[in-house]
Specification:
Elements (H helix, E strand, L loop, with lengths): L1 E5 L4 H12 L4 E5 L7 H11 L1 H4 L5 H5 L2 H4 L4 H10 L8 E4 L2 E4 L3 H11 L2
Parallel strand pairs: 1-2
Antiparallel strand pairs: 1-3, 3-4
Length: 118
């Protein structure tokens, strides 16, 4: 089963969930705002995808951060920022078969297809 982490009002998350449903892929949704975020998940995602891919620098949350918070980034600072501000995570994040896939672009869709192929 695919676990989809995201935010219910995120258009990309909604598109991903709709696509999974249409394809008949079994999945569950974990809303980062409602259900929270575990440190273990963030550590796993950072290890699997790297902070450059996981950190959403395009969103409002990033732009609203003080400049000092956006400078001199390292993995420890990123982990703290993501735990304090889950909306800084690029969405959606998929967990399946021990793998982590971030986003819903063509490459992410192809990887999901590979991981769910029978």
């Amino acid at each position: 089963m695919i676990t989809v982490y995201g935010i219910k009002n995120c258009d990309t998350c909604r598109n991903a969930l709709k696509a999974l449903k249409e394809q008949g892929r079994e999945h569950s949704f974990h809303d980062l705002r409602v259900d929270g975020l575990r440190e273990e998940s963030v550590v796993q995602w950072l290890d699997a995808a790297g902070w450059e891919k996981l950190l959403n620098r395009r969103g409002t949350t990033w732009r609203k951060l003080p400049e000092a918070e956006r400078e001199n980034l390292d993995e420890l600072k990123i982990k703290r920022l993501l735990l304090d501000n889950p909306t800084l995570i690029k969405r959606p994040v998929f967990e399946l078969a021990g793998e982590v896939v971030v986003g819903f672009d063509a490459a992410a869709k192809a990887r999901l297809d590979e991981l769910t192929a029978d």
